[in-house]
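User: For my dataset I need records formatted as: sequence, then structure tokens, nothing else. Please produce one.
Assistant:
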Amino acid sequence: MKRMQLNRSRMIGMTLALALCAAVPALGQVEFTFEGYAAYAPGTDQAGATMTVYGIANPPVSVPTPIPVDFASNQYTVAVTGMVVDTYVFNGVAQTKNYVFAGGTLRIYEDAIGGGTAGNYAAPATFTDGTLLLQAAVDDGWTMDLNDPFGFGQFSGAGIGTCDMNGGSELGTLQAMDYPLNDWTFAGTGIAEPWFPFFTVPAGYHHLFGVKVIFPYDPTPNEDAAWGDVKNLYR
């Protein structure tokens, strides 16, 4: 009986080990997160318009930032400029809006809370007057999809694409930490048209727009192992 219990425990242990090896990476993604607003010139819903986004970082709760930051002493802002709507398609039957962008630059700044200038959406320069930490070129093909599932005339959704880090005072820090510089995910989150009183935007802006800059970093990736190798761990 004792031997049967021991074998059962060993089998449970091996099963758990296999599940962990197959499904769980050593470390999850790291990201910068911002909440802000987007403006379009000369206007929304048209090819050729240029999108500009400004946002302010929220201290991360469960996802670490790629580089060390000090939220107690500094405010972190993002400015996305020069993204041009290459194509815009409205589907009146499905009630969807699809945008594909070309070009653009994403910049992340640090500004001291004491003695610095807090981000003010009425004064866009306040988002870019700190220290430029990181700069990235937005890759062509960045896509935004909005829809109106309830027929209220208010569209919301998300955007996704990639960007390549190419500047800023902390570019060397990324390299020293063995981060690749290309193909970081640039996601637009919680994008929504204004819908009073539930969704409002400051004067001169057209969309609520969150920004995530993500690299799913895993310095110790999973390794394949034969069944015999796993059994040896428990002998």
